[in-house]
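Supplementary Text 2. Reproducibility record for the structural model of the 293-residue chain.

All settings were left at their defaults, and a single model was retained for analysis rather than an ensemble. We include the record here because the model underlies the residue-level annotations in Supplementary Table 4.
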Amino acid sequence: MRIAFFTDMFLPQVNGVVTAIVEMAKELADLGHHVYIIAPKFSDAPEFAYPNITVKRCTSVTVPVYENIKTALFNRMILKFVRDSKIDVVHFHTPITLGLQAIMTAKILNLPLVGTFHGFFMHPEYLKHAKMNYQVIHRLAWKYSNLFYNRCDLVTCPSLGTKNELIENNCKRPILIVPYGIDLTVFDNAKARAVRKSLGGGKLVLHVGRIAHEKNIPYLLECFALAVKKVPEAKLVVVGDGPQLRNVRAKAKSLNLSGNVVFTGMMEHSKLVKSGIFAACDIFVTASTTETG
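Retained model, structure tokens:
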């Protein structure tokens, strides 16, 4: 089949949604399908290349309320691109402008429409980015979500919990659970011992993710401070970057954890899985309440 992915999030952005989209596209391509990824244009970024995957970039603008997020401008040439590419299925991954263009394109060309629900953007922790974390906005955000997903022939999501929440909030379309797979063959832990040594040893706790409100890292630091009282040599390794980095650093300092928290900065997925950091650490933790997986 020829499948068109419409997504406002794609490389060179680094986040879980982008990783999920890339891996899904690669798996479909490996099965013999051709995937066309329609995504925002970034300046001076090397293009993603993979057999049976074509990337079509659209003129885009930056979203001011969330760091490093762009959304594509409406482009009538997308309809022509989909028609000329003889697309069989339209599949959107973000309920933003490209999601809307996916819906319009599918309806005009009478093509099956699939929408994947990747994140609870209507939850208060996400709404904090726009300073809109109010109950009325929370309800309106669910209505906004349903404007997209209730126009699909099929909705996919990665877990039963997410499916149940979609149903509870009036998503009326058929929902299929498609878990995010993990390709264990891409991991290389040869450097694990050296990484552990560079981190100073001790009990190492790993957190990987954007440093943003929805990841609830200040709460994680409060919990970790209690652990350090019992295990003074424990270290929390925080891999990632994001809009709340400065606040999280300040929180660690206020809890007297400066010597127990290591901020590595952002690591691209391809480098992260070969860094050895997963095997170097003793346990992985997350305090996020907004994950779909």
